[in-house]
Amino acid sequence: MSNSQTLPRADRMGGRAWGVLVVLCGAIFLEGIDVAMLNVALPSIRAELGLSTATLSGVVSAYVLGYGGFMLLGGRAADMYGRRRMFIAWLVVFLVFSGLGGFATEGWMLLLARFVTGVAAAFMTPAGLSIITTSFEEGPKRNKALLFYAGTGAGGFSLGLVIGGLLTRIDWRWVFFTPVILSAVILLAALWLIKEPAGEERVPRRLDLPGALTVTVAMLLIAYAVVRLEHPGQGWGWTLASFAGGVAALTAFVVVERRSPAPLVRLGILKSGPLVRANVSALLFAGSFFGFQFLVTLYLQELRGWSTLETSLALLAVGIDAILAPTLTPRLVARFGNTRLIFGGLVLAAVAYALFLPLDLDWTYAAMFPSMIILGLGFALAYGPLTIVATDGIAEDEQGLAGGLLYTAFQFGAALGLSAVTAVNVAALGDGSREAALGGFRAALVVPLVMAVLAAIVIASGRQRVSAKEARLASEEAIPAS
């Protein structure tokens, strides 16, 4: 695969290559820490601004809508209009609207700020990932870079929980202002280190406007429908209508792309078995992880009365993946391959969720710790290799699209997992007593377990197909030529 960045030879990981990698890792760390810190600060925001429960939920949902709704378009825009250009431009938007969120005095201001910040992340994130996949040749060095990248993103989310708790104690507005400072530093470094492709003529491409509109409408409607699943008591009419509208728009998108001479998304990319399996597994894995984390947070704070900071520290053990992903995982990938590692990570995640099922009203942290540390190890084994598999073998001019597909899967998976555990938890609450609430948590904890098991089955099916193909080729080679 050709190298599109003016870096020293990527296989040598020179100073410029490391610099680019650090900048892009900083951006994914920023995205992770931004989401985590806000989740921790929500109670303080509601207390000061007097937000209703619906508006507070909308602050989270607005980001999901912007991120999920524009991710595919953002990924393709990076391929068409320049990865550096898209990355830097939308990093600026991310910086500006994160700052505006910190100055919010009304609920609608927060909703607007979070929606546009989500849109900015939808363009910025796949652009950053595709810069990595086109700057490092496919193989060990790219794998190492992607595992550093994945570990940093996971570390941002884990550390964001603790940092958000500390900043909220000072003033919740710092949860918005801190990303502004980080964005400014990353922006300055990106302007200096990330260069446009050298010696490469950019072929002008006409935007597939019908495709862009239909896929964005489809993603927005489906994301909205998934978010509404969190509140089954609000009625199923709008939820079903949103799903139906999303499916209709997605069908129209497929029809448009098949007829377009310059499609926004080449549908043939979905014929790649490894890519599809990686994306389906990523969706299920993200749903299980974020659903579990949400339930644990509610259990510790609402049922056990732990403080925000105590809860954040309790979940910090999961962040061990930020250390293991760039150090241990590359060695394991080289020895066992991506598929085996992903399968092992998903099995460990399922074990972690199963160990948490017997939770009680007086559980000690020592009883919770095995689940936390095993989940962190499982995340370290699965997350980075999923990123590798989802982008391996994809043409350079579609790397942004591959990144967009992967992060769409992660985002929709997270939203689906949160909605599913919330719906099950609410349905099983019973009479509202502490014992009934505990029963609700236990019932909802089955959802992450099932999602992790399904993800492992999807990955295992791919492994079986590869083994069958290898056996068939071996038998053909064993037959003497006539």
TrEMBL record:
Q: Could you tell me which InterPro entries the record lists for this protein?
A: MFS, MFS_dom, MFS_trans_sf, Sugar_transporter_CS
Q: How does it sit in the membrane?
A: Multi-pass membrane protein
Domain of life per record: Bacteria
User: What Pfam families has UniProt attached to this entry?
Assistant: MFS_1
PROSITE patterns, per this entry?
MFS (PS50850), SUGAR_TRANSPORT_1 (PS00216)
Q: Does the keyword Repeat apply?
A: no
PANTHER family to which the protein is assigned, alphabetical = BLR6921 PROTEIN (PTHR42718:SF46), MAJOR FACILITATOR SUPERFAMILY MULTIDRUG TRANSPORTER MFSC (PTHR42718)
Q: Give the protein name, as stated in the record.
A: MFS family permease
Source organism per entry reads Amycolatopsis roodepoortensis
